Amino acid sequence: MESKSNRAFEILDSARKAGRLHHAIILYGDSPSELERTAMDTASAIFGRDARSHPDLFVLRPEGKMRMIKIGSDKINGEYPQNSMRKLMEELRQSPNAGTSKVAVIYDADRMNVWTANAFLKTLEEPSGDTTIFLLTSRPNDLLDTIRSRCVSLRVEGEPEPIDDKDWREWLEDFTKWQREIMVGVKTSREASEFLMRCYALLSRFNSIISRLSEERSDAAVPEEKEVDEEIIQAEAAGERRRLRREMFAEIESKIVSCALGGEGVPAVKLSRAVESLERASGLTDLNMADTPALEIFMLESLRIWGR
After folding, report:
1. CA dist 172 to 175, 178, 302, Å?
2. 215: which residues sit within 8 A by CB, 6+ positions away?
3. What's this model's pTM, rounded to 2 decimal places?
4. C-alpha–C-alpha distance, residues 293 and 284, integer Å
5. Which residues, in sequence order, are bridge partners of residue 303?
6. Which regions of the chain are under pLDDT 70?
């Protein structure tokens, strides 16, 4: 029940003991596992026992390939769909099953669309005294202002999950070599062709590595329940790929900068343009462009930047 070395948990638990725990709390940070641990540890303290098996713990997750939190507006056989906002709201309106408290944990809360978010606002506007809601997110600014204004926000410190993979380390080494060589300049059409071929070889390997790693992570992250909806599994896989992509792009940017700093006479303006190109590519993935085509745009732009 105790969360080790977790300042966020200490703050929340202190507020709980003083009877001042807010009914809606946004937990944000770079480590999904730390966000979940903080929410679950606090929920366990509220319940006085392990929250994960408690009948008054309610969880809502994104679903499907688009990883959206569904509103669940249509009833089926008189019931709202499981893992939907309407179902969660209905459960929170009911009396606790055991004890005196209810806790809801909304994973990747920034994945609410406008209809789901507006429906959720009703719960925030009419809070129940026996309910605590945790919204977990790595992108708090993507939440509606009206939601953020009704919640307490707390940053949870924690580094992104490390990428400890031999194939990825080898890819980074080969990418660094490619980057360092194009920084010298592309002098002939033959060199341009060779760099282009190596570019697409790197892209093919990148796609294979991120696909494998995201699948491995999502398999490990799927909730240990008897039955898990296929759409939740798909959403978890998409979420893990999104987190991996963010970490991988950050390491790629680090390699670009280290290559430039280690070279002599590398124009700062070109380095700036290369980093901006990578950031634009990362932004395209946030708009649902696939990661490998986005990286392809960056690498082709790099050839143009350094080849001039």
Report:
1. 5, 10, 16
2. 237, 240
3. 0.64
4. 10
5. none
6. 1-5, 65, 159-162, 219-236, 262-266, 308
